[in-house]
Amino acid sequence: MRSRPPSVNALALSLSESGLPHPLCVDVARAAIAAGDPASAPQRARELQRSLLTPVVNATGVILHTNLGRAPLAYSGDARPMTVEFDLATGERGSRQRAVGQLFARLCGAESAMVVNNNAGAVLLVAAALAAGREVVVSRGESVEIGGSFRVPDVISQSGARLVDVGLKIHPSNYRVSGFVEETTVGELASLEVPVVADIGSGLIDASTPWLAGPPPSWLAGEPAAVQCLADGADLVTFSGDKLLGGPQAGIIAGRADLVERCARHPLARALRCGVMVLSELQRVALAYLHREVVDQVPWWAMATASVEELTERAERIVAAAGVGRVVATEAIPGAGSAPGVTIPSVGIVVDGDRLAELRAGDPAVIARTRDGATTLDLRSVNPDDDAVVVDALSRLER
Ligand SMILES: *Cc1c(COP(=O)(O)O)cnc(C)c1O
Known about the structure:
alpha/beta; 5-stranded mixed sheet; binds pyridoxal-5'-phosphate; 399 residues; 7-stranded mixed sheet
């Protein structure tokens, strides 16, 4: 004889320690009972909990990991309302683009700048505002895939502009977008009587990296930068907020004031606008660049520029504390399609076997990678504040 199943409510109440809100515990309890397996409820609750957005330790060595939200954020929201569209001088309605726009214009050496939801949105908006019903000439074999099989030309097509794919041959037309600017010369394009827009993608602001103490890191060589593209004659540049910039997901449009203004007035600008969390974080990041405090305030730059000596010391301390693992030289990458092909010398900890699932099961989960039957935790993408988490995760591995 089977015993009577527990009531949904009793089972749901027994799940309260999962931390899930009661209505979700009720859903889990119902599903477990419906499946004829009430005992599976705690496991189902754990699975639901783990399907929510969860902070993790990124030990993959891919610093801007697209599946982990690209640039790690240091967002701390202020509960107070923000002057998103409020002019403190007049007490009247202000422009949502003013604060962040002026900072990015300053950073890029541009007349004007504005921000939208992401760079794909920036490209869409620019094409719609400047070229709807006209032709956009993409100057390379620009089938630039931006992940998940989305292609930039398809995004541009959605603007109502006609895409003319001319490969490397340049046809005079009324509009131009160049994808990877280092392979196209913006200077040449700029001599034509049409707006030249460079989608530089990754959002390196200035190739001379004045916000860093030393010279530009060698792995940045060849990466297109906003300041230089505009100086070479691009009328607009567009780039992501969460790649080499190190900020939140956003798309920045910078360049000629009249063109930025046309973008800002287009109806799509309303559909693509950013909210207060993104705007305030972008402002914090932009100010960190202007203060030259990116290494302290923008986690991506701290990770990208940490010395191999620092990383080695951390790795040795972690291995000593955990009593497991070997310190090895590794190669990290910027990630998110930024600076493709380049690697950044790094340091990792290797343990035998494929331990990915074990490391993921921890709280917080540690995300590593495997190679040749061993598991590597690369420290370049790990915030030093999380070294203790790594020690803990390693100590718990089954021996
Ligand atoms: C990443 C990238 C995009 C897409 O940017 P999102 O911010 O992800 O929308 C577009 N163009 C280029 C060249 C890119 O590298």
